[in-house]
Amino acid sequence: MKLVLIGIQGAGKSTQGNLLSKKLDIQYLSSGHIFREMAKEKTPLGRYIKETMNAGALISNEKTLEIIEEYLARPEYQKGYILDGFPRTVPQAEAFKNGLERVIYLKVSDKEALWRISGRVSDREDETLLAIRKRIELFHEFTEPVIEHYRSKGILEEVDGERDIQVIFNDILERLGIKA
Ligand code: AMP
After folding, report:
1. Is 92 helix (H, G, I), strand (E, B) or coil?
2. Which residues, given as ranges, of the chain have pLDDT below 70?
3. Which domains does the chain have, with CATH numbers?
4. Which atom of ligand 1 is the closest one to the Cα of 135?
5. Is the pTM of this model over 0.90?
6. Ligand 1 test: best mutation among 13, 35, 61, 126, most atoms within 8 Å of CB?
7. What are the residues whose beta carbons fall under 8 Å from the beta carbon of 75, sequence distance 6 or more?
């Protein structure tokens, strides 16, 4: 199965992504995680990624697409994937083909997301309050149109993300036609 998870930071994408990955035996891939690893590299690309991430801004569509496509070409993704954090802009969604079947939108209010993020302990350099606010802003500006893009294609599942983890997980499974 080829899935994408969309939601603001704190919406529970990685929690649900990891649960789905175990249940379906399909690889979970987070673009944010890839970029955090690349940001450690002492190369011009590594430095560009680090600076961009720490400002809460977006990596260029071109670079992002190139990196994600390269990952998805690997053998472990041939039976499917659960993508978190990509596509995040309409140009990314339009350029990304790869047989995407379903998009799960985990809907959580900004207030709830901020509350959750502020409550978790993080050593991430890109989790300053300023960067988090910027990321939420960018979500509304660039990623909400991605949700509409997939809604119009008829592959969007909008899920209330402000419920118990297991309830949300069962809801997603039901929508995908998978027995809990
Ligand atoms: P995340 O962990 O998904 O919040 O991603 C952390 C950071 O990685 C974001 O703030 C962006 O700087 C970068 N990033 C992750 N995914 C993308 C993407 N699809 N397009 C552009 N930048 C991204």
Report:
1. helix
2. none
3. 2-176 (3.40.50.300)
4. 10
5. yes
6. 35
7. none
Determine the distance separating the centroid of ligand 1 and the alpha carbon of 65, expressed in angstroms. Answer: 12
Contacts of 104 (CB under 8 A, 6+ apart): 3, 4, 5, 6, 16, 157, 159, 172, 175
Phi/psi at 83 (nearest 5 deg)?
A: -95, 135
- Whole-number Å distance, alpha carbon 178 to ligand 1 midpoint, is 29
Q: Whose CA is nearest to atom 2 of ligand 1?
A: 32
Q: How far is the CA of 103 from the centre of ligand 1 (A)?
A: 17
12-62 pLDDT tens trace: 999 999 999 999 999 999 999 999 999 999 999 999 999 999 998 999 999
Find the 53 Cα to ligand 1 centroid distance in Å.
7
Q: Quick one: CA dihedral 59, 64, 66, 68, positive or negative?
A: positive
> In this structure, are residues 7 and 106 in contact, taking their beta carbons and an 8 Å threshold?
yes
Please tell me the predicted confidence (pLDDT) of residue 161: 98
